[in-house]
Write a structure and sequence with these properties.
By secondary structure, the chain is of the alpha/beta class. It has a single domain, classed as Rossmann fold, CATH 3.40.50. It has eight helices and five strands. Strands 2-3-1-4-5 form a five-stranded parallel beta sheet, with helices on both faces. The structure holds ligand Z5A.
Length: 213
């Protein structure tokens, strides 16, 4: 059986990942693809418990090293319990965040060394997405959108400069790996963002089918 494909979706605060997710899943299902959706941190019972600890605003004392290791603990569990079995069964996985988020938030945002994150990527995750959609939006625009969403979690209360570093790290990763990344201008109206997402997915599905022929 052909291995499935791993597609991740990434972006900073207010980029609109949740808002475009349904359209992304619909585009794949309309193409006849069997899809599994995951989210990080989380996606397994252990991962969801870690998510609660990671995002709980009552833990402002969580150090950057613990934060990085907990993100990867959640990811390691998710890969082994959900992602790898699905890919092995020929299913496609749409991941609401994957390792690039750790390079952006813990690397860019918190200043953790990228070499250390790359070691964790190899050891604890062991796989990389086949396609990554980066929803890119200026920090001020994203923060304005996110403000309307209710109480902030521990990471959402970070400063604008933290989120500027996160955005820069994401954009640098995308520039360094244009084969895998598609950067989508998420400052457009939602319908235009969704149209771009659908176009990217259609091109990717067509390329995979052509590769099989
Ligand atoms: N994190 C990390 O640090 N390291 C890691 O390795 C991983 C994660 C995996 C939780 O992630 C936190 O974990 C996150 C990164 C960190 N911290 N922060 N900050 P999450 O992905 O679960 O949570 P999230 O970042 O809040 O994602 P989200 O729920 O998908 O939110 P969003 O991207 O901001 O999207 P949204 O909820 O769809 O949109 C926000 C609002 O904007 C909403 O009112 C929409 O209606 C509106 N919106 C969306 N798109 C548009 C457009 N195009 N125009 C106008 N308005 C729009």
């Amino acid at each position: 059986m052909a291995r499935g494909r791993l597609i991740s979706i990434e972006g900073g605060e207010g980029a609109g990942k949740s808002s475009v997710m349904t359209a992304l899943l619909d585009a794949l299902r309309e193409a006849g693809i069997d899809v599994v959706r995951t989210r990080e941190p989380g996606g397994t019972p252990l991962g969801e418990a870690l998510r609660h600890l990671l995002l709980d605003a009552d833990h402002p004392d969580l150090c950057a090293e613990s934060e990085l290791l907990m993100m990867f603990a959640s990811r390691a569990q998710l890969v082994r319990e959900v992602v790898q079995p699905a890919l092995d069964a020929g299913r496609w996985v749409v991941a609401d965040r994957f390792t690039d988020a750790s390079f952006a938030y813990q690397g860019g945002g918190r200043g953790q060394p990228s070499g250390r994150i790359a070691d964790l990527e190899r050891w604890a995750a062991g796989i990389r997405p086949d396609l990554t959609l980066l929803l890119d939006v200026p920090v001020a625009v994203g923060m304005e959108r996110a403000r309307g969403r209710g109480p902030s979690d521990r990471i959402e209360t970070e400063s604008d400069s933290f989120f500027e570093r996160v955005r820069t790290a994401y954009r640098e990763r995308a520039a360094a790996d244009p084969q895998r990344f598609r950067v989508i201008d998420a400052s457009q109206p939602l319908e235009a963002v969704i149209a771009d997402v659908r176009r990217v997915i259609a091109d990717f599905v067509a390329a995979q089918s052509a590769g099989k022929a």
